[in-house]
C-alpha cells in the first residue's frame, strides 16, 4: 500500500523549496533545556560535563558529553550515545538515567563517555531529521556535512583512549509509519510502501563484527525488563534476517550509522517500541539502561 505526503510532488525528489516547506511545518514541542540540560546539571560528582560542540539553527544548542570523574590512561573506554534521532526519547532519557544511577558503580573499572542527546533540535521538534531534512544517523562518514554527526565524530576521534564498547540507544515509534517513512519516500521521489513495526526490543549488530555472545548478553538483560521482539513469519525483523533471538545485522560503516563511530571491539544499537500495548515509556527507559548494563557486564567479564 502506498500513500501521499503533503509536501512535494509524487515521483519528484525534494529540492530547496520543498525542504524549506518541510522545515516551516516543524513545531517545537518540548524543551532541550528543561528535559536534558537541567538533568545533566543535576548529575552527581561522579560525572564531569564537557561541551564538545554546538548547533546554531534558529536557536543555539550546546552539545554536551558526560564523562566519568575517574579517568585513567590505558584503561578501556565505553561510549554510550543517545538521541542521534532526536525524537527517540528513551535513548536520551535512558542514557541520562545510566549516568545518574550507575556511572559511579563502573568508573572504577572503565572510562565512560555519554553523549545523551546528539540531535537536540530533533529532540525538541520530535523529528528524525535535522532542520535540513538530513538524517544524522546516515551521516557518520569522513567530511560529513551534518554538524550533529561531524562534531561527535571529531570529539570521539580526539579522545586519548580508544573506544572498547559502544552502545547506541534508539527506539521505533508509530510515527515512523505515520510520518517519518512517508516523508523519506516523498523526499526521495519514491512511492511509500507501508511496513510494520516490531513489537518489542531488538538489537542491530554490525555485520562486519557481530559479536553475537555480546548481543545475547544484552538481550538476556533486557528480557528481565521488557519483551523481546519476535521475528515475522519469514524469520525477519524490519526486512532483515534474525541471526539469533532479537538480533539483526546491518553494515554500519556502509550506511553511515552511528555504530561505525569507532573501531570498537563491541557494538550494539538498541531499538525499543514505546507504543507497544505491552510497554510503557518508563519501561523503555529502563530497557535502555538494562541494555547498557548487560553489555557492560559482559565485556568486563572478558578482561
From TrEMBL:
One Pfam family matching this protein: Peptidase_M14
Coiled coil: none
InterPro entries: Peptidase_M14 (IPR000834)
PROSITE patterns assigned to the protein according to its UniProt record, in alphabetical order: PEPTIDASE_M14
Annotated Peptidase M14 domain residues: 28-303
Annotated family: Belongs to the peptidase M14 family.
Protein name, entry field: M14 family metallocarboxypeptidase
Protein species of origin: Celerinatantimonas yamalensis
Amino acid at each position: 500500500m502506498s500513500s501521499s505526503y503533503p509536501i512535494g510532488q509524487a515521483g519528484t525528489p525534494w529540492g530547496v523549496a520543498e525542504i524549506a516547506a518541510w522545515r516551516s511545518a516543524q513545531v517545537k514541542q518540548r524543551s532541550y533545556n528543561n528535559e536534558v540540560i537541567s538533568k545533566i546539571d543535576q548529575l552527581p560528582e561522579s560525572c564531569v560535563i564537557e561541551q564538545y560542540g554546538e548547533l546554531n539553527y534558529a536557536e543555539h544548542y550546546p552539545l554536551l558529553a558526560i564523562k566519568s570523574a575517574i579517568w585513567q590512561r590505558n584503561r578501556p573506554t565505553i561510549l554510550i550515545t543517545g538521541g542521534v534521532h532526536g525524537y527517540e526519547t528513551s535513548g536520551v532519557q535512558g542514557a541520562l538515567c545510566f549516568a545518574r544511577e550507575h556511572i559511579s558503580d563502573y568508573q572504577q573499572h572503565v572510562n565512560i563517555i555519554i553523549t545523551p542527546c546528539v540531535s537536540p533540535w530533533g529532540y525538541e521538534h520530535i523529528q528524525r531529521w535535522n532542520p535540513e531534512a538530513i538524517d544524522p544517523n546516515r551521516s557518520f562518514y569522513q567530511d560529513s556535512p551534518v554538524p550533529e554527526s561531524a562534531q561527535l565524530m571529531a570529539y570521539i576521534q580526539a579522545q586519548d583512549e580508544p573506544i572498547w564498547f559502544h552502545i547506541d540507544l534508539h527506539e521505533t515509534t508509530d510515527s515512523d509509519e505515520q510520518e517519518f517513512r512517508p516523508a523519506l519516500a516523498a523526499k526521495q521521489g519514491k512511492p511509500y510502501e507501508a511496513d510494520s513495526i516490531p513489537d518489542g526490543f531488538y538489537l542491530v549488530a554490525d555485520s562486519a563484527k557481530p559479536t553475537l555472545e555480546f548481543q545475547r548478553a544484552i538481550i538476556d538483560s533486557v528480557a528481565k525488563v521488557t519483551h523481546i521482539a519476535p521475528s515475522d513469519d519469514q524469520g525477519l525483523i524490519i526486512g532483515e534476517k534474525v541471526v539469533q533471538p532479537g538480533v539483526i545485522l546491518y553494515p554500519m560503516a556502509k550506511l553511515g550509522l552511528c555504530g561505525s563511530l569507532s573501531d570498537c571491539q563491541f557494538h550494539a544499537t538498541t531499538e525499543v517500541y514505546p507504543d507497544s500495548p505491552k510497554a510503557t515509556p518508563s519501561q523503555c527507559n529502563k530497557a535502555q539502561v538494562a541494555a547498557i548494563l548487560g553489555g557492560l557486564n559482559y565485556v568486563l567479564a572478558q578482561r
